[in-house]
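Re: the request from the purification team.
They wanted to know what the chain is likely to look like in 3D before they choose a buffer screen. I agreed to run a prediction and write the result into the notebook, where they can find it.
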Amino acid sequence: MNETAAKNSVVLHPEGYIEVILVGDQNYQTIEESGNQCKELIGRLKYEQKPLLGLINLSREKNFSTGANKSALEIMDDIIYDRVAMFGGNQVLDEVAKLIIKALGKDDQTMVFETREEAVAWLLMKDPMRG
């Protein structure tokens, strides 16, 4: 199967977090489409008055274009969320993600992890400030 033909997916897990699975090469449009799918689920979580938690799965992603970075920056700036955890990226992608997070000033609520287990554990931990 051609990786560029592979599709990203967005899933709402029973635990209450949205997972974005990036597959293959990413560009502005592929990230924008995933962001739009997230916004639909975010509306549902807001309606149910649940926290907005996101998991970004980079383990099947191949390449990120500068357009993909721009789109990711726009989406992360646009969406008000409680926590987002990322995992599975390579060293370069992790560094780019950290720079985007820092630029947005969201480094308290957005973290990059090596494993899915670490990411989900942080995502679902109870926030002592919120009870």
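For the purification team: The beta strands are 9-12, 17-26, 53-64, 83-87, 110-113.
Please add any questions underneath this entry.
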